[in-house]
Write a structure and sequence with these properties.
Blueprint: H1 3-8, E1 37-42, H2 76-94, E2 97-102, E3 109-111, H3 121-127, E4 132-139, E5 146-147, E6 152-154, E7 158-167, E8 175-183, H4 188-191, E9 198-201, E10 205-207, E11 215-225, E12 229-239, H5 261-282, E13 291-293, E14 298-303, H6 305-310
Parallel strand pairs: 6-14
Antiparallel strand pairs: 1-2, 2-3, 4-5, 4-7, 7-11, 8-10, 8-12, 9-11, 12-13, 12-14
């Protein structure tokens, strides 16, 4: 059982998991047999796909030039959504299985057919792990121990808001981090009013150096709560500019001698496949800067020091 579920049920023995790598999956199962049966399901954690917008392969691998143009123009958003739905569904089915067996009558068993599952955009958002992870915590600068969700900070005392950014992709990014502290359970026009409520040292938006692939970095700013209450801290990461890989040199172009007949045919076939791939990826539109948001805000409870002493 994942720790976050125990925590939401009020268990004091399990602390909330730092890495939210689990999601809740609901399946409707129908027993068509006249006897009762036992079902065993192998659950799937949340999924990370390095390139969820990769082109969908042709049904016949030998026909690499297969390309179907729809009679109606498909927008880049719809094409990206279709590709995400395909790859996340395939990845989920790879890590998920189910079996059944009867408990009465003739002994029978089999596997559960899961190929009929279809993922909606909301389901994809719940099951996927973002390319950029954002973890927020509040720490006491005079202590090595960070506050968890059950702890609180005190009025007029300095704390540090730490944001850890993890790049899970295979290419680097140029991140710009934005912090958004606000009041809990308030309308938007009131929640962002920080007069005599919350103060911080520095700017809430900072541009960081290039973050390498499969690496992490941290952003720390000082903050002080000026009154009691509950605050929430959210964060977002936006690409400052797009990263472009250096063009790769073709080894065949560096050859001084001519190609043989077989090599020439293979070169033509590879060039045709590359052109077809370019056509298939062109429907995604021009590459744009992306933005990632923290999945849930970090809740901070602010109390008076006198209340803590009296307890």
């Amino acid at each position: 059982m994942p720790k976050p579920i125990w925590h939401r049920e009020g268990s004091e023995e399990a602390e909330p998991s730092a890495s939210d790598d689990q999601c809740l999956l609901l399946l409707d199962l129908r027993n068509a047999w006249p006897s009762s049966m036992q079902v065993c399901l192998k659950v799937v954690p949340r999924i990370y796909i390095d390139d969820p917008h990769a082109s969908i392969p042709a049904l016949n691998p030998s026909r690499q030039r297969q390309f179907v143009v729809s009679s109606t123009k498909i927008t880049p958003e719809i094409e990206r959504g279709n590709r995400e739905a395909f790859w996340y569904r395939e990845k989920m089915l790879e890590n998920m299985s189910g079996t059944w067996r009867t408990l009465s009558g003739p002994a029978r068993e089999g596997t559960i057919q899961l190929r009929g599952i279809r993922l909606t955009p909301r389901m994809i958002e719940a099951i996927k792990i973002d390319e950029v992870g954002i973890d927020i915590s509040v720490e006491d600068p005079e202590s090595d121990r960070s506050h968890n969700l059950e702890n609180s900070i005190f009025v007029d005392e300095f704390v540090q808001i730490k944001v850890q950014i993890t790049n899970r992709m295979a290419q680097p990014i140029y991140p710009t981090v934005r912090l958004l502290p606000s009041l809990c359970n308030r309308p938007v026009n009131v929640a962002l009013d920080f007069t005599r409520k919350f103060a911080w040292n520095g700017t809430l938006q900072q541009t960081l150096p290039m973050l390498d692939a499969r690496s992490s970095t941290e952003l720390i700013i000082g903050a002080t709560a000026l009154c009691r209450g509950e605050f929430e801290v959210s964060a977002s990461v936006e690409e400052t500019r797009l990263w472009k890989a250096a063009p790769e040199k073709d080894e065949r172009e560096s050859k001084s001698n001519g190609l043989t007949q077989d090599e020439g045919r293979e070169s033509i076939r590879q060039r045709e496949r590359a052109d077809t791939q370019t056509m298939m990826d062109a429907v995604l539109g021009a590459k744009e800067r992306r933005i990632w948001h923290s999945r849930r805000p970090y809740i901070v409870t602010v109390r008076d020091r006198s209340e803590s002493d009296s307890e």
